[in-house]
Amino acid sequence: MSSRTSLTHQLGYAVRNPRRIAPHVRRLGRDAWFRLTSGDHVAYYRAVMRSDTAHDVEGAVGSKNHDRWLALGKLQYDYLIGHGLAPSDRMLEIGCGNLRAGWRFIDYLGQANYYGIDISPDILLAAQRTLVDHGLCDKLPHLALVRNLTFDFLPDEHFTVVHAHSVFSHSPLQVIEQCLAHVGRILHPDGHFDLTFNRTEGEEHHVLREDFYYRTETLVRLAEKYGLAARFMTDWEALPHKQSKIRVIRAV
Asked: Under 8 Å CB-to-CB from 76, ≥6 apart: which residues?
């Protein structure tokens, strides 16, 4: 797969999709301004989410329409159910967004067993609306705004399932490393952490510092650095989604 930052790829994409040139240029200018006025990547991406959420809440989490929003949430839900998710599990969803998958998890899990975190206050307000719309307030889910992925306000060895869908596809390596450096502390000894990422077999790269592409072995080695074991989830590859998945556990 060629790098999306290469001139050849960009010219070819422009020829195939001429109507997308103007929106891309506008986004390029917007993102350049956000990078200039933000102190770090989290602050930058929080600004991106604020802008995207104001335009289209479901589009902000990567869904082109409501049917796709529902389908992508169900895909995540069905996968974890198929891998043994139980109502008694205590789940942390990193980058919970507006609960595209989260509302299904909340409905299925025991009361107060779901904890969702996000860096965007705007998308968390949308998540509250999703709870109301689906009649799930009595399930007492936790929704928390965070500045980083150190999880310093969460208890040791508490979560049996940690889930991050389409988070590291938008994260530079230092953000992923911060997460992997700290997730082992909050992960139950028998628990697992599923994360998706944009996979490349060529040069690792990013597009507009919004979409990042990594080799599988890079993330596996990074997990090992912090006493975690990671494996590529081949069964996820057969599903209708563009990202790949790794499952991380605490190494024995």
From this structure: 100, 101, 163, 165
Strand (E) or helix (H) holding 36 = helix 21-37
pLDDT digits (tens, 9 = 90+) for 168-206: 999 999 999 999 999 999 999 999 999 999 999 999 999
Of 179, 167, 189, 192, the C-alpha closest to 222 is 179
d(CA 248, CA 179): 12
Q: Which of 6, 55, 69 is nearest to 26 (CA)?
A: 55
The string of pLDDT tens digits covering residues 210-230 is: 899 999 999 999 999 999 999
Question: Pick from 214, 211, 213, 161: which is nearest to 186 by CA?
Answer: 161
Report the C-alpha gap between 107 and 139 in whole angstroms. 7
Distance (Å, whole) CA 185 – CA 68: 34
C-alpha–C-alpha distance, residues 203 and 182, integer Å:
27
Global pTM reads: 0.86
Domains and CATH numbers, the chain: 41-250 (3.40.50.150)
